[in-house]
Amino acid sequence: MAYLSDDELLDTEGGFTGWDDETGAGTEETLEQALAEERLAELENELEQDEHPIDYEAELESEEEESAPVSEKRLKREIRAEAIRRLEEAARTEKDFRAVVEEWNKLDRNRERRERDHENLRGDVPLEYQAVPEPKLIPRWMNNPSYRQLMAGNFLDILFDCPYEMHNLTADAFISRMVEELSEEHKEVLYFLSLRLYSTTRLAAVRGQSDRNIRKLRKTIHKKLQRQMYDHLCGKQEHGGSLTLRERHFLEKYSKIAKKQGKDAVIRRENKTKRRKKKNHP
Fold this sequence. Notes:
single chain; mainly alpha; 12 helices; 57% helix; 0% strand
């Protein structure tokens, strides 16, 4: 999308940019034609699904397969993921990396095909409201992801974007209940540090506290949540439930720390900033 420069925006009468009425003469016909083509494509898609339905449920695991420690469908997914991982690690030449990109493009095409069978994807232009596809002037803030998500109808993430409703942002019932049961102070600290990505110094200035106090609160929250998650995953594993690779890594790492620290065990954040080298004074 092309934007006008600041000089072009200001160099107009009254501080506003003039619109060319001649260029918008055929806009209405173009939009009506695009809307008719979209509805025709939607009808053809529905007829295709009626004549040649695709059973996507065959690729999903049943309740018995999901609760079982081993599943054939799950093994197939893990094998495909492992094959792509090895292909990425073994890539050295430009040809190898092109093969990796092609594999990921293949997965994206399959995902898009599944989506097209259930909904007709369109661009960011709402045709029903006779919006201009490529306007000469548009506020930059309307290109923000949150605004575009809201205009597309995906408003749940925006409604739940606050410390007291953030537990609704996850579909995991245990994690949602665990976050919901936190105190208001802990919810606020967790929200700004984890979702808003505030630094401890910035949050301390907002709350009128010291940076040390915020870091102490963060450690307390992490210790409480990690302990509850550890107990939940241990119980899930004892009952034969399957764990993801990330959950297995968490169990392994937390159990090692718990043997040394006991109830005060907590997995600390990794400090990606390299330590300064000490200067050797003569």
